[in-house]
């Protein structure tokens, strides 16, 4: 009885844990063609507002920068990040928010978060990726939703990189 009860308890706890913190899906990508074709070509990087109202940020990490270097997102709306790396393991965290992931060559990292405060945040690489690691960082501009929506309506890829 005790063993059966213990096994049932383990199943319940494990089930609840996986429901609360599902493991991320494994999505692979070919590092040899990531710049040439598919989702992560340069013209497709940055922030988009989909026809369904979803905000998606696509970015690439490589020694020693992010592309785009400056990312625009709205506050108070779910934002999905999709990113990958081309050469070494990188990662990023946006200021003191919970937007935080590793970027591994050959894999697409994705998560969805909502930023509560407007303003600019630093986005450093937080995985040691080589001699230039400490100089690798980007910026994230979190705009009020109305301002973001007015900029994003055209459907083009947004970023705040000064060109
Ligand atoms: Cu990229 Cu550290």
From TrEMBL:
Predominant localisation class: periplasm
GO cellular component, one term: periplasmic space
Location within or outside the cell: Periplasm
UniProt keyword annotation of Metal-binding present: yes
All residue ranges annotated as the Cytochrome oxidase subunit II copper A binding domain in the record: 52-154
GO molecular function, one term: cytochrome-c oxidase activity
Entry annotated with the keyword Translocase: no
Alphabetical UniProt keywords: Copper, Metal-binding
Domain of life: Bacteria
InterPro entries: CcO_II-like_C, Cupredoxin, NosZ/Cyto_c_oxidase_sub2
Record-linked SUPFAM superfamilies: Cupredoxins (SSF49503)
Protein name: Cytochrome C oxidase subunit II
Organism classification: Bacteria, Pseudomonadati, Pseudomonadota, Betaproteobacteria, Burkholderiales
């Amino acid at each position: 009885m005790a063993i059966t009860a213990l096994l049932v308890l383990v199943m319940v706890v494990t089930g609840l844990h996986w429901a609360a913190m599902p493991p991320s899906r494994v999505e692979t990508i070919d590092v040899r063609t990531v710049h040439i074709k598919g989702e992560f070509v340069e013209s497709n990087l940055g922030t988009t507002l989909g026809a369904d109202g979803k905000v998606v940020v696509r970015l690439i990490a490589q020694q020693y920068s992010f592309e785009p270097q400056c990312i625009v997102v709205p506050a108070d709306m779910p934002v999905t990040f999709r990113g990958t790396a081309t050469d070494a393991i990188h990662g990023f965290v946006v200021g003191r928010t919970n937007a935080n992931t590793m970027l591994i060559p050959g894999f697409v990292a994705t998560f969805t978060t909502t930023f509560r405060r407007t303003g600019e945040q630093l986005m450093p690489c937080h995985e040691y990726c080589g001699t230039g690691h400490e100089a690798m960082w980007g910026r994230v501009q979190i705009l009020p939703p109305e301002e973001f929506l007015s900029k994003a309506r055209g459907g083009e890829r947004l970023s705040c990189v000064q060109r």
